[in-house]
Amino acid sequence: MTETIIRLTDLRSDARYTTHTPQIPAQIRAAAGHLEDALARRLHDLRISVTDRCNFRCVYCMPKDVFDKDYAFLPQSSLLSFEEIERAARLFVEHGVEKLRLTGGEPLLRKHIERLIEMLARLRTPSGKPVDITLTTNGSLLARRAQSLKDAGLTRVTVSLDSLDDTIFRQMNDVDFPVAKVLEGIAEAQHVGLGPVKVNMVVKRGTNDADIVPMARHFHGSGVILRFIEYMDVGTSNGWRMDEVLPSAEVIARVNDALAVEPLEANYPGETAQRWRYRDGGGEVGVISSVTRAFCGTCSRARLSTEGKLYLCLFASAGHDLRTLLRNGASDAQISTVIGDIWHGRTDRYSALRTAATGLPENAPPKVEMSYIGG
Ligand code: SAM
Ligand code: SF4
Ligand code: SF4
User: Fold this and answer.
1) CA gap 194, 191 in Å, rounded
2) Known binding site for GTP: residues?
3) Which of 114, 244, 259, 368 makes a 20 to 30 Å CA pair with 40?
4) Residues marked as binding for S-adenosyl-L-methionine?
5) pTM > 0.85
């Protein structure tokens, strides 16, 4: 009985349930292929979470004590269907989105995701270009799915891998998953042409920072772009502490001591990673410094949650419920106007406001979990 009461209390404070319900607009405004927010940041990327479930329990994302057998994952009926996702994505593309990233939870757990990729691959930007379609995965199912994903129209893949040390990797994914299977998935993705493959390593000081140089050496010269991500205070369940963040400057210094690097220009304004290249021609490496070097000033990303809420920031505490509009007969023009209005009003810049001393903005409301909103 006590257990049930605690769970109900948890649900009431669960950030997933905090929602803005957009009104059907009285006046329609056509998409112009270019949308700027209140801080003049252009909408460019849409990240779409296709499931809130995952077969890993990474300690920094879905810790087992919260995401246990009693955790209330979303029921199937709450998930956006592929048709709903495609419709929403099309409206975003009309507003200037050129890049779609499928994520989760673990996106390869969503049944028949290849069919969704085929649908999205048919979208065209207002100037007639195909849309860049990428996917972020833990790599556990990649070896056997890489070819079908490529055939469906996926452009590239990003694989998360936090260590090459099997013991540490098994501890970090917390489901005893072996590193060799993820490496097989990366090799297969490269083999079928889903490249350049990017590998994301979340660095937690004291947990896997000893793996920085071995990871850099392993992927040096392989064509894989390794990126080190600062451990972030996403969600409310991972018990984040500033002293577990290893600043990217230190990460790059350690890499540079082993393999000399020099900085590279960004590919485009708003790119999350700072890019470096090995001086000996061994390829590229990057850092994503969301904690120590906020990039809110150029943040061009919107996120669509598994159940169709639009989030304007990774650290948001409330989303805008587009699913109700998609399901209650609103027209494309009405939903498109709503999307435009929401983006126009965007002022989010959580990382820029994070205090240097404690790492956490004061009096911040509970944030939504990354497995729900999509990374
Ligand atoms: N399951 C897929 C995966 O792991 O690649 C996709 C979803 S996962 C939420 C997306 C990315 O978020 C992964 O690269 C993961 O390492 C990263 N991530 C999750 N929690 C994080 C945290 N607290 N700090 C930094 N990155 C985090
Ligand atoms: Fe799953 Fe990805 Fe989160 Fe790890 S980071 S628990 S693989 S969603
Ligand atoms: Fe974008 Fe929010 Fe991250 Fe800033 S904190 S870069 S606004 S997602």
Assistant:
1) 8
2) 47, 101, 136, 198, 301-303
3) 368
4) 60, 105, 160, 232
5) yes
